Amino acid sequence: MGQGINTKVAQVCAYALGIPLDKVQVKGADSFVSPNAMASNGSITSECVAYATLKACKELLKRLEPAKKGIKEPTWEQIVKKSYDNGVNLQTSSMTSPLDSLLGYDVYGVCCTEVCLDVLTGQHQVLRVDILEDTGQSISPNVDVGQIEGAFVMGLGLWTCERLQYARSGRLLTDRTWTYKPPGALDIPIDFRINFRRNSTNNAGVLRSKATGEPALVLAVAVTLALHEALLEGRKEFGYEDHDWLHVDTPYSIENIMKALAHKIQSFKLQ
């Protein structure tokens, strides 16, 4: 999935059971264990899995509670061993369904972008990106930073280089990396800074956190707006004075940028 689900599930489980993280193991997803899992869309997958984990852990703690009686400050191993000896079922299962009381919430974020545009070739570089996102109380900050970076770069590709082209027959022409260009390593912003909103919380989220899988994707439009401003400045060198909004087809590929710049041949004459 790429949402860091296994990491977050392990952290949620360790937190809920009150045990060290190294005592938690996460196995791969299997339809035998979860035949009717929730849909994986809208950044909700990690939240749904984490919420189901919380419910399963609460049920397990109820079953383990009797084993704590009569033992002063018992260890996790002692509690599990005594419960096993008492014939307690040590396996729990839970799922997140539309019937659960998960409330919707908003994810807020702001982005500032600096770009450099070569008006002769139409190529550009994203020099710096600053993102501030409201992640609530992040369950796993390292995972969430990676999610925000990945989502932004995905949006970067959608806005600047990924383009579907079809033949008159309807056949897809851009069906390989020779013709369809996803963002590469050199398209990533040179200076990429991610910050979380401080002292934030989310009472509607799992452990007061917020989803981070896709919200940053929409912030990538900032690159388009920055390129648009650079285009307007570049057009001034060719004698254009734009008073109305300049329409540019997306994505802001080299081809579309060159068309928008509308070079005048006279500008290339030697003085």
UniProtKB/TrEMBL annotation:
One of its GO terms (molecular function) is iron ion binding. It comes from Papilio xuthus. Pfam families: MoCoBD_2 (PF20256). InterPro entries: Ald_Oxase/xanthine_DH-like, AldOxase/xan_DH_MoCoBD2, AldOxase/xan_DH_Mopterin-bd_sf. Keywords: Molybdenum. It comes from the Eukaryota. The keyword Chaperone does not apply. Residues 1-189 form the Aldehyde oxidase/xanthine dehydrogenase second molybdopterin binding domain. This is Aldehyde oxidase.
